[in-house]
Design a protein that fits this description.
By secondary structure, the chain is α+β, with helices and mostly antiparallel strands. The protein has a single domain, classed as Chloramphenicol acetyltransferase-like domain (Chloramphenicol Acetyltransferase), CATH 3.30.559.10. Helix content is 26%, strand content 26%. Helix 2 links the parallel strand 6 and strand 7. The termini are far apart.
């Protein structure tokens, strides 16, 4: 089990479904935000058991493909309301008076990163050990990254890791933008949009 490693299958960037005029303006960090540039990204996630149909070899591919598309689409809708998460950090230097300004640039960013990965381990392999297995670090794309890295890395990355019998959804969020309360507010909002989208799709099939 210790030799198992997470395998990245695909990755892409997700933009807000539409951009507001507000999102086109630079969003400057306050002086009190700047000390956070040396802190690490917030990294937390949720572990779900696969539904029975996802355990069927004939339906497994259809399940995961549909799940990924729904997650990406609902993420694009959530980012309309949380558009700074789709940006990048940028620094502007001014000469008179001499100063540096750090801001969030949403115009020159590919968006939030979305990764699909797999791991040949079960939910029990993750939860049973007394200590969290080291492989869990690989459930997060920005492990060990500091917030200043947001100049070149996504401010938000969602990684969907498929286990043998489960799905782990991990979010890495730049701590300059948000605290833990905001983090879970975003995660819950994304979840609500995803569930509403799924319910609408189910009702259309009836």
């Amino acid at each position: 089990m210790s030799s198992q490693s997470v395998k990245h299958i695909s990755e892409c960037f997700v933009q807000p479904q539409h951009a507001s005029d507000e999102s086109k303006q630079p969003l400057y960090l306050a002086p009190t935000d700047l000390p956070m540039l040396s802190a690490h990204y917030i990294q937390k996630g949720l572990l779900f058991a696969k539904p029975p149909e996802a355990m069927n070899d004939n339906k497994k591919a259809d399940f995961i493909n549909a799940l990924l598309e729904k997650l990406k689409h609902s993420l694009s809708l959530a980012l309309v309301h949380f558009y700074p998460l789709a940006g990048r950090l940028a620094t502007k230097k001014e000469e008179n008076p001499p100063l540096y300004l750090v801001y969030i640039d949403c115009n020159n960013s590919p968006g939030a990163k979305f990764i699909y990965a797999t791991l040949d381990m079960s939910i029990s392999d993750i939860l049973s050990p007394t200590d969290v297995p080291l492989v869990v670090q690989s459930f997060f794309n920005h492990d060990r990254a500091v917030n200043h890295d947001g100049h070149t890395m996504s401010l938000l990355t969602a990684q969907v890791t498929e286990l043998v019998d489960g799905i782990f959804i991990g979010l890495s969020m730049n701590h300059c933008l948000a605290d833990g309360t905001f983090y879970w507010h975003f995660f819950n909002s994304w979840s609500e949009i995803f569930q509403a989208q799924t319910q609408t799709h189910a009702s259309q099939k009836q």
